[in-house]
Structure formats: C-alpha cells, structure tokens
Amino acid sequence: MGVGKTSLATMLSEKMGGQALLEDVEENPFLLNFYQNPRKYAFQTQVFFLLRRYNLTAELAQIDLFSRVTVSDFLFDKDRIFARINLEDEEYWLYEQLFQILRKRIMPPDLVIFLQAKTDVLVDRIRRRNKKYERAISHKYLDRINQAFNEFFFHYTDSPLLVVNASEIDFVRNPGEFEDLMAHIQAMKSGTQYYVPMSRKK
Fold first, then answer.
1. Residue 60: which domain range?
2. pLDDT tens digits, one per residue of 159-190
3. CA–CA distance, 75 with 45 (Å, rounded to integer)
4. Which residue in 179, 181, 53 sits closest to 111, CA to CA?
5. Beta bridge mates, 161
6. How many domains does the chain have?
7. CATH of the domain at 111
8. Which of 22, 66, 167, 181 has the least CB density, counted as fewest CB within 10 Å?
C-alpha cells in the first residue's frame, strides 16, 4: 500500500503501448468495515479480494498476449500474504483450500516487479493521499504487511523478479529515473535482479 504499484503499471503500459490491468481496491464492500473492526470482517474481506483478483487475472486468458503487452498492478499470490496475517487459523485453513483451487488455473507472469520501501515511507505516502478507507491503518499493521511481503519475495521463484528500492526513487516526477528503470525492466531475462535508482549510483 502506497508504494506506487498503480502509478508504475499505468506508466509502463503507456510506454510499451499495452494495456493496464488495475484492481479497484475500494470496490470491496467490506474493506472500510475491516479497518474499523478487523476481527469481524477479515474473512469476508479476504475472500472478496481473492475472487476479484482471480476474475481479473482470468481476463488475461481472453487477451491476445502475443500482440499486446499487459501490465498488472497486482500479483495473484499477494492476497495470500494478507490472508495469513488477517485471518485466524481456522479461517485461513478454509481460505487456503479455495486459494489452491484457484491458483492452479493462474499462469505465472512473464516478469514480476517488487517495489520495496521502508514502512515509514509507506505511512507518509498513505497519509498524503488521504483515502478514507486507509485512515485507520496503523503503523504496526503496515509494518507487519511490509515484512511479510519482503519474506515472500525473498523466496519467490515462479517468475523473473526485479526488486526496486522504491524508497529512493520517484519515477512519477522524474522522467530520467523512469527511463532508467524502464531500461532495466526491458533487459530482464531470468532470475532475481535488484534495481538501484540513479540517485544512488553517484
């Protein structure tokens, strides 16, 4: 949250003449209630996100992937990261059964970009954009999510992975940094690589 996923996905799709596949988090009818009462609304919130992200990802099967690039601002597996933190053990067991059934039908992406940022940076960005459903997010909760993402991508091997230090880059306001990042993305072949922003190379 607040790391720049949607901005980057939109910019990449425009630059590459493709299309952006973006999720609308605010369409989840349980989300606001979840942040106000996590224990009561966690399961409904996660299942809605899981099914919605599955439907969005499944739309890729209807696209001619050989003629048009598609850039998504989410990875299907990310919902499971939130679920492990938000759900009680019994709920997570049930969620996991559904997740595994759906995941078998999902093709891994050609490339995953992990925007990695410090929790303090995320908190500042979230406060500045001032979305209603995000106002109740605590620093402690966001830090747990952030650590869980770092752990997940440390072991991620399903696709080529580019890890970007998003605390030190402003690809929205700095065209040079976006072009430099774009060059690294286009040069990705396999394995895991780490992108160092231009400002840190000097």
1. 5-201
2. 999 999 888 877 877 788 888 888 888 888 88
3. 17
4. 181
5. 112, 192
6. 1
7. 3.40.50.300
8. 66
